[in-house]
Amino acid sequence: MLYVAYVTSGECSVQGFVISDWEALDRLTEPRGSNYRYCISTAVNAGIDMVMVPLRYKQFMDDLTFLVESGEVLMSRIDDAVERILRVKFVSGLFEYPFSDRSLLDIVGCKLHRELAREAVRKSLVLLKKGKNPENPFLPLDRTAKRILVAGSHADNLGYQCGGWTSTWFGGSGRITIGTTILDAIRESAGDKTEVIYDECPSTNTLAGQYSFAIVVVGEPPYAETLGDNKELVIPFNGSDIISSVTEKIPTLAILISGRPLVLEPQVLEKVDAFIAAWLPGTEGRGVTDVVFGDFEFEGRLPMTWFRSKDQLPMNPGQNSYDPLFPLGFGLTYNKEKKPQE
Known about the structure:
Mean pLDDT: 92
Shape: elongated
Low-confidence stretches: 4-9, 337-342
CATH class of the largest domain: Alpha Beta
Radius of gyration: 26 Å
Order of helices and strands: EEHHHHEEHHEHEHEHEH
Oligomer: single chain
Number of helices: 10
């Protein structure tokens, strides 16, 4: 993977430099990095100006020096790379101001930033089902309900809400940063007299209780890059089973936390009263309850086709066989008249 670090205007003119991805050079041979000098000469001669070498940097310097001295990499290519890198550093003022402005740290994650993130959450939610009966929609939920059951692996997991590239490369589970889980948000949004019961994987005894409705939040664990590759695309952590077990006893809103469409089994979608694709809402769970309890309207539309079965993939609008579960651009609202594109 390559990155163009800095580009200015001009026809076919790149006034920046090209940087490789982390350990990308190693992938030019199999086994990876087995012929490191070949990797270096191929990449540098192809136009890579800066190389991300996190571990083998001493060997990289020794091998690149050898390649230049042997003539396999011309010194003019090195000069070209250095010139490009220095130009960007000069233009960006890096030599005058080599360090970041630490006085700005206090505003990172400030209230204004979190309010903007919360707004982004509520505008990105996609309502896929709003009730079993179109004449009697299940949403919005009643915040003054007597008793609410909250369940699912993702209801109270900030790390799962944030996904990969959060705190660490692959993300994590639990309270990995400051924020509000969806469970936190439900408790904050519910009325003073509303009892919120939380059971991640509800037992028979829990399901035997009396509830006005349930909110089940399921989804994927955090991932990044190829570790997120998934040939099955089913909801992990027995998510479909949890939704089914709850819907058999209690009217249910299901919320899916994921970075992509997942398989929605017909019987699950049929049983559930309402279904929301929340994607990866990050730290601001209140953005979800803002919409679920009716303070704001649903605005999100599917940025991709939602398939019925993984066997349909890849699928795109315009294909003769295009038969999606939900088409590109789909998204319901509370008020059908308000958004005719529904």
